[in-house]
Design goal:
With 205 residues, this protein is of the alpha+beta class. Helix content is 23%, strand content 26%. It has four helices and eleven strands; from the N terminus they run βββββββααβαβββα. A five-stranded antiparallel β-sheet has the order 4-3-2-1-5, with no helix packed on it. It has a three-stranded antiparallel β-sheet with strand order 7-6-8, with helices on one face. The chain has a three-stranded antiparallel β-sheet with strand order 10-9-11, covered by helices on one side. A hairpin with a 4-residue loop joins β6 and β7. The radius of gyration is 33 Å and the shape is elongated.
Length: 205
């Protein structure tokens, strides 16, 4: 049984490209002639395939009504590395299988606290710890910048560079139009205060 076995002249049909049209002729019970609302005319077999192409190599394109479907979404990237657990509380990298199996979870992996390589995990631990310590210092010492989340507006950051050609030290700098990965400060005064603490070794990152 073909898809269009019961089709009649005058029936409304739908094509992927030309959308709605009307059957204007049926030839020898083999060809369906359709005139579309856009004035285009085409012919199809009783399986809804364009007769001008080999039916073995084309898909059905004519239907009794509109086909509704959802476009596939791009696949999401999921974090999967899980051999080494970055233990922030203990400041260590742990690869004990029983310990890992007991503590690791999808939540842990999704938050980026696992790696498949010990050296990479160690480097990540240092980076994460430095960031969280600076973030905690900012929230503790800087009332105006406490909990500050940057927008596209002007915000300040602490950078480590050579100042006045003499030595490397922390300085306050600002960034406009870009959201940085570094800890942001709402005011230059707050950023300079933290620079003072770091440069005078009153706090170590």
């Amino acid at each position: 049984m073909a898809y269009f076995d019961d089709i009649k002249v005058g029936d409304r049909v739908w094509d992927f490209e030309h959308r709605y049209g009307k059957v204007v002729d049926i030839k020898d019970n083999k060809k369906i002639k359709v005139k579309f609302d856009n004035r285009f005319t085409n012919e199809y077999d009783f399986d809804g395939k364009n007769i001008y192409y080999n039916p073995k190599y084309v898909n059905q394109r004519l239907f009794l009504d509109e086909i509704n479907f959802e476009l596939p979404q791009k696949p999401k990237v999921e974090l999967r590395e899980n051999k080494y657990l970055i233990c922030l509380n203990d400041n260590i990298i742990d690869d004990d299988k029983e310990f890992i199996d007991a503590r690791i979870s999808d939540y842990t992996i999704e938050n980026g606290l696992t790696r498949d390589d010990a050296d990479i995990a160690t480097k990540a631990l240092k980076q994460i710890t430095k960031y969280t310590k600076l973030l905690a210092l900012r929230d503790q010492e800087c009332k105006d910048s406490r909990g500050f989340i940057p927008s596209i507006n002007k915000k300040y950051y602490i950078i480590y560079k050579e100042k006045d050609g003499v030595k490397n030290e922390y300085v306050a700098d600002w960034n406009k139009g870009v959201i940085s990965q570094e800890v942001p400060f709402a005011t230059k005064k707050d950023a300079e205060h933290i620079c003072f603490l770091l440069n005078n070794k009153q706090f170590k990152l």
